[in-house]
TrEMBL record:
<dbReference type="InterPro" id="IPR009057">
    <property type="entry name" value="Homeodomain-like_sf"/>
</dbReference>
<dbReference type="InterPro" id="IPR050109">
    <property type="entry name" value="HTH-type_TetR-like_transc_reg"/>
</dbReference>
<protein>
    <submittedName>
        <fullName>TetR/AcrR family transcriptional regulator</fullName>
    </submittedName>
</protein>
<keyword id="KW-0238">DNA-binding</keyword>
<feature type="domain" description="HTH tetR-type">
    <location>
        <begin position="15"/>
        <end position="75"/>
    </location>
</feature>
<dbReference type="Pfam" id="PF00440">
    <property type="entry name" value="TetR_N"/>
</dbReference>
<dbReference type="InterPro" id="IPR001647">
    <property type="entry name" value="HTH_TetR"/>
</dbReference>
<feature type="DNA-binding region" description="H-T-H motif">
    <location>
        <begin position="38"/>
        <end position="57"/>
    </location>
</feature>
Length: 207
């Protein structure tokens, strides 16, 4: 199955058409839950002909994969914000920073819950896994940089190892939580936050 876009938009007008297609697909995935929208439904929601959609994407799976890429690419920006502010000087301030990060990342998961089967499919497909690996490496590096922002003396190897755990534990628990009700999801979020704090705080040299 072809999963790559047929062509990349080279002009502003083409970029707007692609954005309309992806926006329509995202709205429909949120409305329809686990049922993937058809190419025809996406075209109608975007106000385009099916032929216009096929100019850029060979099928609905390619559209959903492009959405997944955009979802993955949103995480580095969210984490980078925590590095751009002054580093916390005590544990209470660090807990506040972690809470802000959890609010931002939790929103990305909840608002895009219907994309999670696509994300899981990427993880299990040897041909597609490099797409996620690329973003995983960015996220791990940013988590490590954030920890070293808080404690500049933290060794690179330790910071990277903690970054792997922060990413993998957070992602796995959220995937599980999204399959439960909202109350359970929120409780699991709180549990993951506590696990994070218990894991990294001893390395941060905070009062």
């Amino acid at each position: 199955m072809a999963l790559e876009p047929r062509k990349q938009p080279r002009q502003q007008r083409s970029s707007k058409v692609v954005d309309r297609i992806l926006d329509a697909a995202l709205v429909l995935t949120r409305e329809q839950g686990t049922k993937a929208p058809t190419t025809l439904a996406i075209a109608r929601r975007a106000g385009l002909s099916v032929g216009s959609v096929y100019q850029y994407f060979p099928n609905k799976e390619a559209i959903l994969l492009d959405l997944a890429r955009r979802w993955l690419s949103s995480f580095p920006e969210v984490i980078a914000r925590r590095i751009e502010v002054a580093p916390p000087t005590n544990r209470d301030e660090f807990r506040q920073e972690v809470r802000k990060l959890f609010i931002d990342t939790s929103t990305l998961y909840r608002d895009n819950a219907t994309l999670m089967p696509v994300i899981e499919a990427i993880s299990g497909n040897a041909d597609l896994r490099p797409i996620q690996d690329e973003y995983d490496e960015q996220i791990i590096a940013l988590y490590a940089a954030w920890l070293q922002h808080v404690n500049p003396a933290l060794e690179d190897e330790i910071a990277s190892r903690l970054g792997v755990l922060m990413m993998d534990v957070g992602h796995a628990c959220r995937l599980v939580g999204l399959k439960r009700d909202r109350k359970t999801y929120d409780l699991m979020e709180d549990d993951v936050e506590r696990m994070w704090l218990a894991l990294v705080t001893p390395y941060l040299n905070l009062d």
